[in-house]
Amino acid sequence: MSVRTDRQVVDGLLPSPVPVRFVAEDGTAVEPPTGYPAPGDGQLLEAYRRMVLGRRFDRQATALTKQGRLAVYPSSRGQEACQIAGVLALREDDWLFPTYRDSVALVSRGIDPVEVLTLLRGDWHCGYDPAATRVAPQCTPLATQTIHAVGLAEALRRKGEDGVVMAFIGDGGTSEGDFHEALNYAAVLHAPVVFFVQNNKYAISVPLARQTAAPALAYKGIGYGIRSEQVDGNDLVATLSVLTTAVEHARAGEGPFLVEAHTYRMDAHTNADDATRYREPEEVERWESADPLARLETHLRDRGLLDAEGIASAHEAAEEFASRLRDAMNAEPETDPYELFDHVFADPTPQLREQRALLASELTAPED
Amino acid sequence: MSVRTDRQVVDGLLPSPVPVRFVAEDGTAVEPPTGYPAPGDGQLLEAYRRMVLGRRFDRQATALTKQGRLAVYPSSRGQEACQIAGVLALREDDWLFPTYRDSVALVSRGIDPVEVLTLLRGDWHCGYDPAATRVAPQCTPLATQTIHAVGLAEALRRKGEDGVVMAFIGDGGTSEGDFHEALNYAAVLHAPVVFFVQNNKYAISVPLARQTAAPALAYKGIGYGIRSEQVDGNDLVATLSVLTTAVEHARAGEGPFLVEAHTYRMDAHTNADDATRYREPEEVERWESADPLARLETHLRDRGLLDAEGIASAHEAAEEFASRLRDAMNAEPETDPYELFDHVFADPTPQLREQRALLASELTAPED
Amino acid sequence: MTAMTMAQALNTALRDALREDERVLVFGEDVGPLGGVFRITDGLTTEFGENRCFDTPLAEAGIVGLAVGMAMGGFRPVVEMQFDAFAYPAFEQIASHVAKMRNRTRGRLSLPMVIRIPYAGGIGGVEHHCDSSEAYYVHTPGLKVVTPATPDDAYWLLRDAITDPDPVIFMEPKRLYWSKDETAPGDRRAAGFGRAAVRREGLDATLVTYGPGVPVALQAAEAAAGDGIDLEVVDLRTLVPFDDETVVSSVRKTGRCVVVQEAQGFAGVGAEIAARVQERCFHSLAAPVLRVTGFDIPYPPPKLERSHLPDADRILDAVDRLQFDDAPDVLHLAREAS
Amino acid sequence: MTAMTMAQALNTALRDALREDERVLVFGEDVGPLGGVFRITDGLTTEFGENRCFDTPLAEAGIVGLAVGMAMGGFRPVVEMQFDAFAYPAFEQIASHVAKMRNRTRGRLSLPMVIRIPYAGGIGGVEHHCDSSEAYYVHTPGLKVVTPATPDDAYWLLRDAITDPDPVIFMEPKRLYWSKDETAPGDRRAAGFGRAAVRREGLDATLVTYGPGVPVALQAAEAAAGDGIDLEVVDLRTLVPFDDETVVSSVRKTGRCVVVQEAQGFAGVGAEIAARVQERCFHSLAAPVLRVTGFDIPYPPPKLERSHLPDADRILDAVDRLQFDDAPDVLHLAREAS
Ligand SMILES: Cc1ncc(C[n+]2csc(CCOP(=O)(O)OP(=O)(O)O)c2C)c(N)n1
Ligand SMILES: Cc1ncc(C[n+]2csc(CCOP(=O)(O)OP(=O)(O)O)c2C)c(N)n1
Ligand SMILES: [Mg+2]
Ligand SMILES: [Mg+2]
Predict the structure, then answer these.
(1) Alpha-carbon distance C143 to C138, whole Å?
(2) What are the residues of chain D with a beta carbon less than 8 Å away from any beta carbon of chain B?
(3) Mean pLDDT throughout A356-361?
(4) Class of domain D2-183
(5) Structural domain boundaries of chain C?
(6) Quick one: pLDDT at residue D338?
(7) Whole-number average pLDDT of chain D
(8) Which stretches of chain B score pLDDT less than 50?
(9) What is the ipTM metric for this complex?
(10) Per CATH, the architecture of C197-337 is what?
């Protein structure tokens, strides 16, 4: 008749009181957390190269908006540890459900950067093939992708595959009802999905304190029976470690996992946003000193894993990547107006065929 | 840059591991919980009389469905401790946001039972005056009322009134996105609202285990920074004590409070439902032995607060109430079809006036 | 050939689809052991197991969003919204994802899923239980919208909806759940999507309708026949795609048209039909296309729904105003005077 | 009289309303310090304080539901949905509560609240940022739906929406935010709800439109004038209530009508207009009422929106088909052949 909640169960679901960390702001190692294995050196080096490339890509994309080559671009500068750790924690046959801010993750996943930028360039579709890349289209309606991720995870589970799904979401997005429904469905279905919250402290202009009164977003997990953790999202080592643990947990059939990464959006919401309207430059400066890329670099150098040559070659590769991207983006994308009618349904309805004919009559009409 | 969550803060938000109780199933007092004051004897006697009356009302309403006097009735038999404690914890100038299942609470709040049953009788409106009674219309779209409750609480706070709002919701309703948004808004706004979950173990046919994997629903509070508690919802003394504490907390400006009461829906979802399709009679029988009314009666008798005479007079009052209700419900309610057009807007649009004229032409047309 | 109610036909369609294609799944609120509040999924969990037909937590955006993910993952979900108004929480999922996924991915992802929605009134339901919400869906590009009026159509249209490569909003007129006719599941008879059915042939005017309007229109046609007026009744069956051909050829023949729709009239499906018919048949029309609809009010309570619902009398009144005698339209004059 | 953009006019209207009535509150996503993504609430938090203009957590059902509760508690909330498609999460709150509260309480509770929705396209927005969603709201009984096409109307219609005793869906055509005209806030000029405006008088045909369609229709009318065709342009201003009178008297005068609407056509507001016009003006019409609308496709991307949006040419093509010469309609013939 009555319930009793086991203190042990409860403690197993709650996050650590302090975000998990391996490396301090200055790059020095801290006392390693229990329960989270340190990633291998090779993986860390790989992560470093990807972060360098990701940041370069991000800067390039921002530059492309200034040249009118992109309609809009939401930068993730400062969030590279999250973007790269998310991708590195997954196998190739795992799925990723990104938001509009996760272009760096997609590039790191190996998707052609021009494809990644298709939508932001002014085309109507996501650019890449979601089925082939196992990456859902970047999602704008906030939090809606989290429940799709649960559905896909459940589909994998039912097909007997051991794939895992990772759903990215921002701090603001956690306030939407769909996030709640997704967490609950995942827990009840025991679906192999990892919810990865990049808490970058702002939802456009709205600071975290106006978004939630929770001790931390990771405390939401227990309300669904989902194991949860919070991590220093500017510490690549920690983020990779925790996400890897979360993915393994899900893959082992132990159910969903919620990870909150504390990070910061260094740039404005998008190139069209003016961040000076809602935050102080001092705050941004403070976060500069917590830069995830510099931190990892120092850490790897200190540990003797990286030298000037390694750094230079990472940057060279990034420059090359950026220059190829620039070239590719200089060509105007081809868009065919008639294709507007092609993908509404598998076969256009008679009504759409009529409308296509109307457009054709307009486009082929002699100018008068 | 980093956050640290205080263990004390966390513990202050988590519910007790075992539902709060004052009285065991057999009516004997248990070791009183700390932090929750025992209600006064007078209040307990008042609660007893209301529970007797509430149950009688509920039975009468169910009977009225069989006679075709009510279109449908969702019984709350077995949940009387919750229904009555919710009302007793509130002042008259506090607000209550009920669901379709909370008719007993409304009757106990002093609303004319015929008004309470207006909608269920087949009329289109809620029957009573929400502004005068400070009771929102009984709400069917699940969880939607919880966010209205936050808005009203916020309105009270802004007007400098010290009123509190109590929002009722069922276990199933907690899965809806609106519940999540309501909890979050309440916490961020620090609104004086108490969320009262009557966890009666079923959402129509869906048992709790298919609804949530949380240790208990009360564990949802911490994810919003809301203080939470779980209580034995068939123990009137405990439910009243916890709800009173919650209401005082909100009234004192300490923000929202979430209470989960563990109870059981003894009857089917409504008279139209067939509960044998999804639950075993043994389960229902087990809960019969946890009956909240019998428990309180035994408890009050044991404590010498109630004797046979007191019991008889409570039942007499209830019988009288039921018989008046029967009589009142025998009269066909008057419904005026033209009124359909009166309350869509303060002033009907020209289109509605036209449609009213069309209806008039139909209703006044000679039969052919 | 067996006599089946629409509810039985739908149940049989689900059963046959589950049997024939293991990718088909049924889920929603109370669709499992209870069999749904209308018993459309009765017995499916018993026959196919909890894995194929199951209850979800109570959240409609969740149900639809889960279906999106499962369809992306290769399944063919058939989900139930318990009542029309309880599909509204899923509106964003439907409008921004279900309707758009194929387009957003340039055809690389399709969502073969069905959202079943019991809709409309006439069953004495309390508030929020009798909305007619089809217009919201037909106005959303990327959704097919289907609504059967007979058990036979219920069976075949649902089977077709489940095999369709695109998402289908399947609107079930709940007061017809218990209507019966002879139907032969398994023995292909009903036409596919995009084909309207002429339920009754007539020469004097065309009644265009769908779903719950069909039996009412037929009733009106029977009554009119007694007065010597021969009405044709067209049942649209699928609202998207729309069968202009059948509607237009009927109205060209009869020269007059009344659109019958239970939903509130303003900007409803009937407005679209009236607009299309006059666009395409203007020179054949002897009178304006008239609409007979519910009023622009929240769906009324049991005691008053009869005043709201289009019935045979209201249809016949409209037919009377089709200017068979070339006199000016009396109601229009009255309207202008008011 | 000052030259103001529509954005400034809306901002001024909010400012004046906040100043005049302390029950007025403004809230939503990013409407505080940022001033909204379109800067419509610019400076309001600074001037009136966080108590009167504030940011909410990110949840649209929450915003609307909070407004419902605050309106029940005596306030007059004016909330912003950041973009059209981001109002969909609030659809249940809007359809089941905002629209119905007065009715559900037999007139005892009213909800004087305004939901501002920037809508439609033409600004090069990416997916989900350019939906035209007005038809969903006009079809929902209990909602007034308003959409200005000029700064002056923007100011006065918003002021009227805020003082209206009933909930108003206030649709702001976002590409007109930066259009300018002379306006004189404070000096009553614009008509109230339910009155359409004849923006241009003409004799040959009537263009009926609203919101983003208005400048396009005016442009078409100017072009047609060059060809000797004199078009009247009616701006509906409020969709609910609807001004039949102005529309009908215009069409009775001109005998021809084209409805212009940016939204996808099927079952849109234009369908309602076409249906009403032919119902009421049948004997005055020399040609069918034609519709010029967006296509029935998800709103296209920046690079292709020009192909989708009704422009002056598309309107003029329709005007050409109004059978001024009594020849059969070529496009209809083509359609039938296809
Ligand atoms: C349902 C919905 N509402 C509003 C928006 C508009 N919008 C786009 S991004 C954004 C802020 C999101 O913040 P957060 O989730 O923290 O992610 P971040 O942008 O910081 O990565 C808003 C309000 C949207 N895309 N979807
Ligand atoms: C949004 C919505 N979806 C579905 C329904 C149909 N429905 C009515 S009651 C109910 C079960 C609710 O269960 P719970 O919240 O536990 O409350 P209880 O009935 O047990 O008191 C359902 C599914 C509804 N009213 N609203
Ligand atoms: Mg953020
Ligand atoms: Mg329940």
Answers:
(1) 7
(2) 51, 56-57, 59, 61-62, 65-75, 89, 92-93, 96-97, 101-110, 141-142, 144, 165-166, 194, 240-242, 244
(3) 96
(4) alpha beta
(5) 2-183, 197-337
(6) 52
(7) 94
(8) none
(9) 0.97
(10) 3-Layer(aba) Sandwich (3.40)
